[in-house]
Amino acid sequence: MDIFICPVCRRTLTLRDKAYICENRHSYDVSKYGYVNLLMSQKSSKKRHGDDKLMIQSRQDFLNKNYYKPLLDCIAEIVSVKSGGSPLTVLDAGCGEGYYSANIKNRVPKCEMYGIDISKDALRFAHRRDEDITLAAAGCNKLPFADESFDVLLNIFSPTCADEYFRVLKKDGILIRAVPLKNHLFELKAAVYDTPYKNPEETHLLNGFTLKDLHEIKYTLHLETNDDIKALFMMTPYYYKTSRTDQEKLDIINQLDIQAEFGVELFIK
């Protein structure tokens, strides 16, 4: 199905051999790592575009132990209900290393999964996890997809671009957004920072969408190794915002109980 559009002229892209080509002859090769690069904003070679390999590896190591399985189960159930056994096109906007994309695709029959991320390292990991996910390097603020292409859009701990999500969702499409609640990972922050802060409350208002349902998932993570504690910290944005001195506080912690608190919002276009 030709739903990619050219990031330059916004014309339909068609896959020919191993390249996407539009009628104006703009061409984008599918890399050997399984994704097409449709990201047009890399003006600086020094700028870090998305999560790097270390952060992605930490996230994969942590998620593969199913610490966030209750969140995955909740999202997969919503997608399954939406499908009802019928074919479904799903976009994971900010797919990272593909944990949610791959597991949801495998749980929901007839699910055609697409994933985008600005991190090429993340896309390489996602392709290794499931080669049948269609992947592109792209940003959420200018999605390289035609209008009304998707039945479901996943927005899991990634930027929310409501106008673009509205544009690419079908008339009866749904947006599933996962956000951290107030106490999410507070004990981890308390182990690192002198004055840890709680997460701000998210607004449930999105232009063009109606909130249909809200799920709150709260449980305790029992981390019993230093490797798991560090992997959790390194997969979060805190890692790049924390001094080396504060990061080293985790070196002596081998067990930690941490609150996991997720909000899963179901919006209808």
Q: How would you characterize this protein structure?
A:
This protein has 269 residues and is of the alpha/beta class. The chain folds into two domains: 1-30, no CATH class; 50-268, Rossmann fold. It contains eight helices and eleven strands. The chain has helices at 53-63, 69-83, 99-107, 120-129, 162-168, 186-192, 226-234, 244-247, and strands at residues 14-16, 19-21, 27-29, 35-37, 88-93, 111-117, 134-137, 150-156, 169-180, 210-223, 256-268. The strands form two sheets. The chain has an eight-stranded mixed β-sheet, with helices on both faces. Strands 1-2-3 form a three-stranded antiparallel β-sheet, with no helix packed on it. β6 (111-117), α4 and β7 (134-137) form a beta-alpha-beta unit. α1 packs across α7 (226-234) and α2 (69-83) packs across α3. The longest helix has 15 residues, at 69-83. The two termini are 22 Å apart.
Key terms:
single chain, 269 residues, alpha/beta, Rossmann fold, 2 domains, 8-stranded mixed sheet, 3-stranded antiparallel sheet, 8 helices, 11 strands, 27% helix, globular
Chart the SSEs and their pairings.
Blueprint: E1 14-16, E2 19-21, E3 27-29, E4 35-37, H1 53-63, H2 69-83, E5 88-93, H3 99-107, E6 111-117, H4 120-129, E7 134-137, E8 150-156, H5 162-168, E9 169-180, H6 186-192, E10 210-223, H7 226-234, H8 244-247, E11 256-268
Parallel strand pairs: 4-7, 5-6, 5-8, 6-7, 8-9
Antiparallel strand pairs: 1-2, 2-3, 9-11, 10-11
At CATH level 2, the architecture of the largest domain is: 3-Layer(aba) Sandwich
The secondary-structure element order is EEEEHHEHEHEEHEHEHHE
Give a quick account of the main beta sheet: strands, pairing sense, barrel closure: 8 strands, mixed
The total tally of domains equals 2
CATH superfamily of the largest domain: Vaccinia Virus protein VP39
The third-level CATH topology of the largest domain is Rossmann fold
Order of strands in the sheet with the most strands?
4-7-6-5-8-9-11-10
Helix content: 25-40%
The overall average pLDDT, rounded, is: 93
Number of helices: 8
Q: State the low-pLDDT regions, or none.
A: 43-48
Q: If you compute it from the alpha carbons, what radius of gyration comes out, rounded to the nearest whole angstrom?
A: 19 Å
Q: Please state roughly what percent of the residues sit in beta strands, choosing from under 5%, 5-15%, 15-25%, 25-35%, 35-45% or over 45%.
A: 25-35%
What's the N-to-C terminus distance?
22 Å
